[in-house]
Structure formats: structure tokens, C-alpha cells
Design brief:
EC number (chain A): 5.6.2.2
Distance between the termini of chain B: 15 Å
Shape of chain B: globular
Helix content of chain B: under 10%
Oligomer: heterodimer
Number of helices of chain A: 16
Distance between the termini of chain A: 42 Å
Keywords (chain A): DNA-binding, Isomerase, Magnesium, Metal-binding, Topoisomerase
Largest interface: A-B, 29 and 42 residues
Cofactor (chain A): Mg(2+)
Number of strands of chain B: 28
Family (chain A): Belongs to the TOP6A family.
InterPro entries (chain A): Spo11/TopoVI_A (IPR002815), Spo11/TopoVI_A_N (IPR013049), Spo11/TopoVI_A_sf (IPR036078), TOPRIM_Topo6A/Spo11 (IPR034136), WH-like_DNA-bd_sf (IPR036388)
Strand order of the largest sheet of chain A: 10-7-13-12-14-15
CATH architecture of the largest domain in chain A: 3-Layer(aba) Sandwich
CATH topology of chain B: Methylamine Dehydrogenase, Chain H
Order of helices and strands of chain B: EEEEEEEEEEEEEEEEEEEEEEEEEEEE
């Protein structure tokens, strides 16, 4: 990874097998190919970088102090507790000087200068450099990957551009799987329908030229890598009752590359529904909200939000087994909760244990269980986080959109009941497909 | 013999969000929801009209509102998701009696955990509130000061106190905890007298009988446990056979102590006859959760011609509506 400066591109097919031109006609239509719009708008990142370098060279000529402007977004700048003067402080231009007041500042200057230099070179050559690669250029200087990450984002923030405008990207973190292909700018084709459970590493959106959606009907954004792997291994993207789809995960808190990919996906295919599958806890909702509305630290990045991402689960009604919705969307495999309970019984167990399961066709028996069996109590930190998100929703706008109303309701229920549950709460001995079929079928039809 | 209750009136969409808590006074019913306002409906008019909306009472929504059981109904207390407690007092104006903010206990003024459940003493002079780390604070509302804190675990390590009640004689405080334990404190002695752990699952509601001789407790176990307050003995369970127990969210004794009202997450409201230990009425107008069910204090006169003076109760929850029921008498 350290040696390549472009996006990773595993499983590259020969370009000959998949050459598409506008004249492809019916073939192209069947493959449902969409070109990714290139943002040609030059927002002047190169000239801004060159101005910076020039001013440093001028300073060297005149023998004056070397200065690089450097600001950082304050994560709490938007919070209400701050008064206006503090907010103004947050926006004040800070600088990094050389030789500076101390060794730390001198080192910071050198690190920053290195990044500017690498970005400049990448911009001139028109290629892309990963943050990981920057770190490996000078591991002694940067000391850790996170130092590079912070410097890069703050440099972009200072220059008023996106990280990508500096031709710097994060190493891919997201995984993607499904019966569709990505046609890269170098004309290679990545088939995302791979055997195994890992899918392919999500390339950065700027390296993708076209997407062949084929017969994809839905996109499922999954919080957890483990859930993604289970679904990918069972080829759920191909075998779902809701039709073909795309599975994607950013392995927890979403990175910029995954968010931008989804944002572009939604732009080129606005009719393709995007669903978010997260844990029923404040952290899950925070992840969902980052996909939908972005994060505060990277607020200066554009085209990285998907407000239309629909929260498919899991929700309180998924774990409260009395929920009537469960029965409604049961695809005919309806079975009522008929078991009578002995009141003296303090141990409420599921009766799935007695089920004889066949892999292909099976009757779904609803879990007759106490919701408490699949829930855990919220920790003090969970409760704090939950209240924080409530406050965030309340303070963001005067008018709260429907999405956020739902999040508020679920957060309040979580706090009321003091419970949380993981995605696994709705699965059937590790098999999530029955539940997902019900939900996706319901949502897509 | 089962009793019959009829749906008397429904106030649809009484709140724009789920209704989490109800608190009656002799003439009104206060309701709290996931939205920021508190609402007050008249209970002495057959149409149950909205008579007051307290806007922006709790910005993040309100999970508990309480009035004094058997009290005059001049004081109410509400707790918001932000952890703030607000005390409301009735101010008499020319047209209407309206609740106005008297005092706010900011989250920073209560040590340890978020404030959760709240209860008022019958004389409307004391307030008990629980915290998420298992404490119970008692405030003197006249002096506006904290007079007692009961700990239920090593400092700050107690189990989430989900429910609280004060006995009408002012003698006892009871708290129901996530751990399944119910603690009873003697207020005069300022110490715990009983630790009742029979339910084993989170206790979401506790309620003293009007005579202060019994304590009812319920929650995830789906059964209602009855305890005698003289010796702290478990004297019985209220259960309905042949039904799946759902999490009980709300308990309320009728004024005579003969009946107990329960609400649960499966949308059912039940009336239990204490002397026989059986459920005498079940209502499930809604499939959504019931968060709160409360008896209304008995009226001196009938609400409308031909209605009699039977007992009434109100239930609310996920449906966002207030549903009023009355006993079917002489029919």
C-alpha cells in the first residue's frame, strides 16, 4: 500500500472485456451504465498552494521569518454554549512559523511544508496521494498517521478547499459488494460481485469513471463490518427477495471516501433508494447522522452528505416483539405468536430452539421472546451521548425534518426504556436475511 | 364479575410526539411528551378541552410530570430529557387557573447521574426525584433546598432508579430500579427500611396504596407484585393467565384503594381488583405502547347528563392521543 500513490484497485479485469462507448446501445442500457460527473471546477487549490510556496520563497530571499497560515475548525464552534467572541476566535487565522518559538513549532512547520510540497507535486502531475503514503514518506518527521490526518484536514480548512482538492485522499477503508461494476478512469473494470465475504475495497470516487448498475435496485449502508461480511458471504446482494443491490460499509464511523461515494451515487441515481442499517443505540444514530448530515470536524468538505439515506433499522419496533409491523410484512410466511405463557415462568426463552430449519424454504417463526433478552441497558455514556444528539437535533434548525423527528423519537424511547440493542438482536441465529428481506421488500415495493 | 369501562372521549393528537407521562389534578390533566410543551386539559367538561399549553417547557422533550396524589393540585413537577426539573404552581387569574413556572432545578444542582423519575408528596411540600446512578433526592419545595439523599449503592454506583413514589402519609419513599430491586425508605428516620428484590427484572413503576399499607411494583417481569408496608412482606402477584406478559410502564391506585390501573408496552390498559387479585377489565384501543395510565379524581357531579358519577381514568402513549374511560354504571 505504501508504494502506490493512487487508489487501490484490486481485482482488475482486462479492459477488453468491458469497453463501453456511447454506441454500445442496448448493451449499455442493460448494464445501466452511468458516468460519474467530473468536477472540473478549479477552485484554485493549486494557485493557493503556489501562492503559499511563493510567499515562503520571498521570505527566504528577504531573510524574514517563514510563516504558513494554519487554522483548525473548532468542533465545538457551533455549540450554543459559546458566545460570539469565542466563535470569532475560532475563526482567527493562526500561523506556524519557522524557526518558531520552540522545537515543536519548527517540526510542525517542516511537516506542514512537506505536505504542501507533496500536494503541490500531486496537483502538478495530476495524480493522487494517500494520507498513508504521505506518512510513509517521512515517518520520523510525522511520528504518527493521525498527525498527518489532522495536518491535511486543517490545511484544507485553512485554504478553504476540500481535502480532495489538494489531491490528497485517505486510504480506502470502505468495503463494497454486489452484482455491479465500477469502470475506472484508467479503463480497468472492477467487478464488485466477488466470492467470499470481503467484497472489494472501495476505490475513491475520483478514480471512478462509470458505474454499471446492471439491475441494482437498492443500496444498503451497514454500520458494522461483521454484518457486512456475513451478508456478503451469503451473497445477499444477489439473492435478496428485494432484488439485486449494493452492500457497503465504512467499518464503523464513516470516512470521507465512503460518504463521498454514496453522495455521488445518490446524485447520479437519485431514484435508487439508500438504506442505513445501524445498531439501536446513540452511537448507531450518530453514525447514521454522519452519513446524512456530515461531521463537524469535516464540515468544510462538500458533497459528502446523503440526507435521503433512509433508516431501515434497527428501530425500537424491531426489538419490541409485539410490534404489529412484524406481522404485516411477513411475506406470507406468517405465523402468529400463539404460545401461551406460564406466569410462574421467570425464564422467558425463545421457541426457535424447537424449529427444524431447511436452508431454502422455511417457515419463519417469530421470536417469542422478552425484548429484555436481546437488549442491554444503556451505559451512563450512552445516555449522555443520547442527550447530546437530542440537543444537536433541537439546536440545528427551527424546523425539524421528518428524518430527525424519527431519530428524536427513537432516542427518547431508548432513554425512556434505558435499552439498546445491536443489529444482531433481529437476526435468527446469525442469519439476518429473513429480517432484511421483509424490510427491503416492504421499502422497495 | 368483571367491570365495564367505556371509552368516553379521545383527544386525538393531543401532542405532536409520543406522550410519556400524565398527571391529574382535581379538575385538570397535565400531559408531557417528546415535544417541548406541556399541555393541560380540563377534566370537568365532557369534551376535555385543552385549557393551557406551556410552550418550551422542556426543549428536548419531557419524560415525567407529576402532581400530588390526593393533593389540591396546585403544584406540578416535570423533568426534561436535558435533566432539568421544573416546578409549576397554579396562578389564579380572572378566567382560568393556569400553571406558571415557580422554580427550576438545573441539572448541575443535582449530584450524580441524570434526574429521572419524580413524585410529589400529598401536601405538595416535598419532591422526590431519582437519578440514573441510583440515588433518590428529596427537595423541600418551600425552602427550595435539598433535604435528603438516599443512596442505593456504593457512591454513584447504584442501579438506575426508573420509578419513584411517596406515600400519602409522607412516611415512605419507594424507588424501583433497573436491577429489579425496590427500595423503601422511612422518611422520618431517613434510612432504608426494605429492600425487595422479588421482581428480578427492571422495575418501571412503583405506587403506594392510598392507605399507605401496600406498595405495588411492576416492570419488565410483566407481573405486578404487591408488598405489605408493615413488615415489607411480599403478599401477592397480579397476573393474567394465558397472556404474554408485556413490560408494565405505569401503575396507579384508585382513590379507595380497591382497584389498581396498569399500562404496558403492548398497548393494554388493565384494571385489577385488589381483594380478589384478578384483572377485571382490559382495554387495548391502540397497538402502540402505553406510557402512562392515571385515574382521575372523582367528580362531585356527573360530567354530562346520564353519565353517572363513575370512576374515570385516562391512558396515553405512542398514539399521541389522550383516551378517557369511564365506568359503565347502572346499564
Amino acid at each position: 500500500m505504501s508504494s502506490d500513490s493512487t487508489c487501490p484497485s484490486p481485482s482488475v479485469k482486462s479492459p477488453d472485456t468491458f469497453i463501453t462507448t456511447p454506441s454500445d446501445g442496448p448493451l449499455s442500457a442493460a448494464r445501466n451504465i452511468v458516468s460519474i460527473p467530473r468536477s472540473n471546477s478549479d477552485n484554485g487549490a493549486l494557485s493557493k498552494i503556489e501562492d503559499l510556496l511563493e510567499s515562503i520563497i520571498d521570505a527566504l530571499d528577504t531573510g524574514s521569518e517563514l510563516v504558513i497560515p494554519f487554522r483548525r475548525p473548532r468542533p465545538d464552534a457551533a455549540s450554543q454554549t459559546q458566545d460570539l467572541s469565542q466563535q470569532r476566535d475560532a475563526r482567527q487565522v493562526e500561523v506556524v512559523r519557522f524557526p518558531g518559538r520552540n522545537v515543536q513549532e519548527a517540526k510542525k512547520f517542516e511537516a506542514l511544508f512537506r505536505i504542501i510540497e507533496l500536494s503541490h507535486e500531486a496537483l502538478l502531475k495530476g495524480n493522487v496521494i494517500t494520507k498513508r503514503n504521505i506518512y510513509y514518506q517521512h515517518p520520523d518527521l510525522f511520528r504518527s498517521q493521525s498527525v498527518v490526518d489532522v495536518l491535511v484536514d486543517n490545511l484544507a480548512f485553512t485554504l478553504g478547499v476540500g481535502r480532495r482538492d489538494l489531491n490528497i485522499v485517505a486510504a480506502a477503508k470502505g468495503l463494497i459488494a454486489g452484482p455491479f461494476e465500477l469502470v475506472m478512469l484508467d479503463c480497468s473494470v472492477q467487478n464488485c460481485d466477488q466470492p467470499g465475504d470481503v467484497g472489494i475495497l472501495l476505490p475513491c470516487i475520483e478514480a471512478i469513471d462509470k458505474i454499471a448498475f446492471n439491475s441494482v435496485r437498492w443500496v444498503l449502508v451497514i454500520e458494522k463490518e461483521a454484518t457486512f461480511r456475513t451478508l456478503a458471504a451469503s451473497r445477499y446482494a444477489k439473492e435478496s427477495q428485494a432484488g439485486h443491490g449494493i452492500l457497503i460499509t465504512a467499518k464503523g464511523f464513516p470516512d470521507l471516501a465512503t460518504r463521498k461515494f454514496l453522495s455521488v451515487l445518490h446524485t447520479v441515481r437519485p431514484g435508487l433508494p439508500l438504506f442505513g442499517l445501524v445498531d439501536f443505540d446513540p452511537h448507531g444514530i450518530a453514525i447514521l447522522r454522519t452519513y446524512q448530515y456530515g461531521s463537524k470536524r469535516l464540515d468544510h468538505e462538500v458533497d459528502a452528505t446523503i440526507p435521503d439515506l433512509k433508516w431501515i433499522g434497527i428501530r425500537s419496533h424491531d426489538i419490541m416483539s409485539h410490534n404489529p409491523l412484524n406481522a404485516d410484512v411477513n411475506l406470507g410466511n406468517h405465523s402468529q405468536s400463539t404460545q401461551e405463557w406460564s406466569i410462574q415462568e421467570s425464564q422467558l426463552c425463545t421457541r426457535n430452539g424447537s424449529q427444524i430449519e431447511r436452508p431454502t424454504k422455511r417457515i419463519r417463526v417469530h421470536k417469542l421472546q422478552d425484548p429484555g433478552d436481546v437488549c442491554a441497558p444503556l451505559t451512563p455514556n450512552d445516555r449522555k451521548k443520547g442527550v447530546e444528539i437530542l440537543r444537536d437535533i433541537r439546536s440545528s434548525t427551527e424546523h425539524i425534518v421528518e428524518n430527525e423527528m424519527q431519530q428524536m423519537l427513537e432516542l427518547q424511547r431508548m432513554l425512556m426504556l434505558n435499552i439498546k440493542a445491536e443489529i444482531q438482536a433481529v437476526d435468527d441465529y446469525g442469519d439476518l436475511t429473513t429480517w432484511l428481506n421483509e424490510r427491503l421488500y416492504h421499502e422497495c415495493s | 364479575m368483571s367491570k365495564q369501562y367505556l371509552t368516553l372521549h379521545t383527544v386525538d393528537q393531543a401532542h405532536p410526539a409520543e406522550i410519556f407521562s400524565l398527571a391529574p389534578t382535581p379538575t385538570t390533566l397535565l400531559s408531557a411528551s417528546g415535544s417541548s410543551s406541556l399541555r393541560v386539559h380540563s377534566t370537568v367538561d365532557a369534551n376535555f378541552p385543552l385549557i393551557q399549553t406551556i410552550q418550551d417547557a422542556h426543549k428536548l422533550g419531557c419524560h415525567h410530570v407529576a402532581t400530588a396524589k390526593g393533593g389540591l393540585g396546585n403544584v406540578a413537577a416535570s423533568v426534561g430529557f436535558g435533566g432539568e426539573i421544573k416546578i409549576w404552581k397554579k396562578k389564579t387569574s380572572e378566567q382560568n387557573d393556569e400553571f406558571a413556572l415557580d422554580w427550576e432545578i438545573k441539572p448541575t444542582k443535582t449530584s450524580g447521574g441524570d434526574v429521572w423519575a419524580v413524585a410529589l408528596s400529598a401536601n405538595e411540600e416535598y419532591l422526590a426525584c431519582t437519578t440514573s446512578d441510583g440515588r433518590i433526592h428529596v427537595w423541600d419545595l418551600t425552602a427550595k433546598e435539598l433535604i435528603q439523599t438516599y443512596e442505593t449503592g456504593a457512591r454513584g454506583g447504584g442501579s438506575f432508579a426508573m420509578s419513584v413514589d411517596l406515600s400519602r402519609d409522607g412516611k415512605f419513599t419507594a424507588s424501583g430500579h433497573e436491577s429489579g430491586t425496590v427500595y423503601v425508605f422511612n422518611n422520618d428516620a431517613g434510612r432504608m427500611v426494605y429492600s425487595l428484590s422479588g421482581l428480578a427484572k427492571p422495575v418501571r413503576a412503583v405506587a403506594f396504596s392510598p392507605g399507605c399499607k401496600r406498595l405495588a411494583a411492576a416492570g419488565n417481569a410483566g407481573i405486578i407484585a404487591l408488598y405489605d408496608m408493615e413488615h415489607g412482606e411480599h403478599v401477592g402477584n397480579l397476573t393474567s393467565p394465558n397472556a404474554r406478559p408485556a413490560w408494565v410502564t405505569s401503575l396507579d391506585w384508585s382513590d379507595t384503594g380497591d382497584y389498581l390501573l396498569s399500562g404496558s408496552l403492548d398497548g393494554k390498559v388493565k384494571v385489577w381488583e385488589i381483594s380478589r387479585g384478578v384483572c377485571v377489565a382490559t382495554h387495548s384501543e391502540t397497538e402502540g405502547a402505553i406510557w402512562s395510565a392515571r385515574w382521575l379524581p372523582k367528580n362531585e357531579r356527573a360530567l354530562a347528563p346520564g353519565m353517572g358519577k363513575g370512576e374515570m381514568f385516562c391512558a396515553a402513549g405512542a398514539s399521541k392521543s389522550l383516551t378517557f374511560y369511564r365506568e359503565a354504571t347502572g346499564l
